[in-house]
Amino acid sequence: MSRIITGSAKGARLITPQGSQTRPTTDRVREALFSSLSTWAGTAAEDPAEQLSGLAVLDLFAGSGALGLEAASRGADPVTWVEKDHGVAAVIKQNQKHTRLSGRIVTASVRNFLAQPAAHANDVILLDPPYELSNDELVTLMATALAHGYLLSDGIFVVERSVRVGEPDWPGGLELSWTRRYGESCLYFCRAAEGNKDD
């Protein structure tokens, strides 16, 4: 069973959806992802419950909600989860109650959610799409998120993909900052290209 790695809800066990419609990020990969994020934020030496304090996080293809919950446990606020399956979204709600972590759950497809202008921009957008989502579809979603104001100019996309899928061609306005590989999983950290940042 998956668990919250650190922060205010450290050790809390997470319910995972039944069936094979979701593919949860392993605890090892999640730990590495958030270690990289705290280094990026310059907060690696701080109290784990405050490492992402003040950062807005958007968890797309949320599944059990583990990524967004880990962010919330480390102080991120607000956190938004987007999950199209009603049953799976209900699991996120259960995990919120169990961990005493809060945030907005949106039951919608990522495509439909991003088609609307953002209510607010985010510091971090987490993308852990299903393997069957093609790189072309992924890049289209990322470009839509940028166009509709979902990412701050100094924010970061974190994308988890299977190494078998290969690296996407990132949309215009983004550049790959660094990658991390863990077994069959690869994490891509993308930021706005220098020429596309606001002054």
From TrEMBL:
GO terms for molecular function: methyltransferase activity; nucleic acid binding. GO terms for biological process: rRNA methylation. It comes from the Bacteria. CDD domains: AdoMet_MTases. Coiled coil: none annotated. Transmembrane segments: none annotated. Pfam families: Cons_hypoth95 (PF03602). InterPro entries: DNA_methylase_N6_adenine_CS, RNA_MeTrfase_RsmD, SAM-dependent_MTases_sf. Keywords: Methyltransferase, Transferase. PANTHER family: METHYLTRANSFERASE (PTHR43542:SF1). This is RNA methyltransferase, RsmD family. It comes from Propionibacterium freudenreichii.
